[in-house]
Amino acid sequence: MKFYLFGNNEHIDMTNPSEQFVSEFCDVEKVDPHYGDSEKCPLCGRAVSSKKWLEPRKIRLSNTRYADHLYYWFCNYPFVVSERFVKAYKESNLIGITEFSPLEVVKVSRMRKNSPKPPKYFIATIPFTRNVVIDVDKTIVVGKNRDWKCELCNPFGKVRDYFEKLTLETSNWSGEDIFEVYNLGIVASQRFKNFVEENNFTNFEFIEIK
Ligand SMILES: [Zn+2]
Question: What is the pLDDT of residue 72?
């Protein structure tokens, strides 16, 4: 089974320096968010996620180019998908997402009289796994050293800038098609990628983990 990380489709448009980040689809922004606790590492107790976004969860979209998967310009944003995605996922045999919680779109910028209304959006809850981990011996991380290490959530003892080489230890993989790996992020299976492509869901980018 091949596995993938999620990229974001935004790229710097070198031909137009005034508009540095261009995106084919709308951006999403939280409106008046309330936060709870972050998730903690089961080994060392340090935070391994950003703080949990609590209800009522309201969002604003930057334009009417709605996508099936919404990104914020910054990483660490919850996994937000359209109602069409949710329906197809529930009818599929995929596993990994444990809950879909509704969001409320309170504003769409640049909306005109005859613009289409936004679809309903949902946050997908994707739990951490301990069955797939970074293969520490076969992975090279570039970044500054930290003064602490944790076998699970910071095995390299570094603030990561990027991976020069990334390998996963997947021999204990328990079959989920989407899951979060400690010290890495959300990972999808080949089946998940096929599902997205077969349904033509928009604004997903997959980066193969080799
Ligand atoms: Zn830890």
Answer: 67
